[in-house]
């Protein structure tokens, strides 16, 4: 019979890896949204109101990136949830604005 002996702290290592991967995903998602929304502000043919809203969304996405970094360092679920909320919220607002325009 084969035994898989990964040591006593295998569950702790697995939780650390899951936590690190979730924080990295939140950071990448927020960073991509920040770049997307920031580039929307400089596109030609975009109205002034859309540029202002896109600028605000870029700041919110950048805050999400910052929260993901804080979550990565401190392993706080509050920062991780806030990071996902910033990035997904700005994505939802951007999609709603683009569908209305």
Number of helices: 3
> Looking at the structure, what is the overall shape?
elongated
Mean pLDDT over the residues? 81
Briefly note the structural class of the backbone. Answer: mainly alpha
Distance between the termini: 64 Å
The low-confidence runs, each spanning 5 or more residues with pLDDT under 50, are none
Largest sheet report: none
Strand content: under 5%
**Number of DSSP-assigned strands:** 0
Order of helices and strands: HHH
- Give the fraction of residues assigned to helices: over 70%
Radius of gyration from the alpha-carbon trace, in angstroms: 18 Å
How is this structure best described in words?
By secondary structure, the protein is an all-alpha fold. 82% of the residues lie in helices and 0% in strands. The mean pLDDT is 81.
Notable traits:
single chain; 101 residues; mainly alpha; 0% strand
Concise structural overview:
This protein has 101 residues and is an all-alpha fold. The protein has helices at residues 10-41, 48-74, 77-100.
Which SSEs are present, and which pair or pack?
Blueprint: H1 10-41, H2 48-74, H3 77-100
Helix pairs in contact: 1-2, 1-3, 2-3
């Amino acid at each position: 019979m084969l035994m898989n002996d990964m040591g006593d702290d295998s569950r702790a290592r697995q939780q650390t890896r899951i936590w690190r991967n979730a924080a990295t995903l939140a950071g990448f998602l927020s960073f991509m949204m920040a770049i997307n929304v920031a580039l929307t502000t400089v596109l030609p043919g975009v109205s002034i109101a859309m540029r202002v809203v896109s600028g605000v969304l870029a700041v919110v996405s950048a805050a999400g990136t910052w929260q993901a970094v804080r979550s990565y360092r401190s392993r706080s679920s509050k920062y991780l949830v806030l990071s996902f909320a910033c990035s997904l919220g700005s994505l939802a607002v951007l999609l709603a604005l683009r569908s209305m325009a």
